[in-house]
Fold:
Amino acid sequence: MASSKLLSQPRWHRFLPRNLSRVRLFSDLPSQRHVSEPQNNGVDPKSNNNTRKASSTPSSLKEPELAKFSAIADTWWDYEGPFKPLHKMNPTRLAFIRSTLVRHFRKDPLSARPFEGLRIIDVGCGGGILSEPLARMGATVTGIDAVEKNIKIARLHANLDPITSNIEYCCTTAEKLVEEQRKFDAVIALEVIEHVANPAEFCKSLSALTAHEGATVVSTINRSLRSYATAIVAAEYLLHWLPKGTHQWSSFLTPEELTMILKRASIDVKEMAGFVFNPITGRWSLSDDISVNFIAFGTKETNEEQG
Structure:
């Protein structure tokens, strides 16, 4: 739990223009015992009896990014593989999502399934490592990804558990679902925007998918000197946590840029937090330090004309 001193003096406000300084620092971190994590480490090919047909649509991701993630799609559920950093970060990401959505939708913070009745879409779901715990917390989950191999892996793994087997996985894009006029109570896109060709248009799609008075959660990496040193040089070249070339520093967005892009897409950022890694414990935690990894929670502006 952040101290009152920390909450009263959030360092990340220096990254924001004056008219955005009302954005709140993440607080009220719940116990992570309420955050469910997937229990199955492997994928059983025999469990693919009820797979849903994937659609092939144009992607907002750059073509090299599609090829890059397709090449390592089989390793999504390998906890020691290329996606190990995301598995490590997942409980912390879920803690932020749980706290902000519970508060916004006035759900019971002590419930094991606080997302009952909520329609949530996981944009860029990969192999489903976020979609599954969201489903376990009671949400009706749709997971979409432009890489077909990711969707196949996600379906296979979800079918190992009756609780997650009803996740709707689709090989499609946010833009395609906007054309289909789909709406969700909460739209989540974690570690995706740094890989898309046009972040502004991508955020417009996220906004269009968000229902009236709904919520949008986006996480990414700050374009800072520290992020270049840690997220690229250290993570990819020194520690080999990620395959070389996973990230392009020039594609990162600063917190100010993301806030303004979302604002122009009718998403008003209300809270923001940073993710910091403790090399001694090997765990991630939430912080007011947004100089590298950060996550933002916003709400759909009510003055937007609803379709």
Notes: Strands lie at 24-25, 119-123, 140-145, 168-171, 184-190, 210-221, 267-278, 283-287, 293-300.
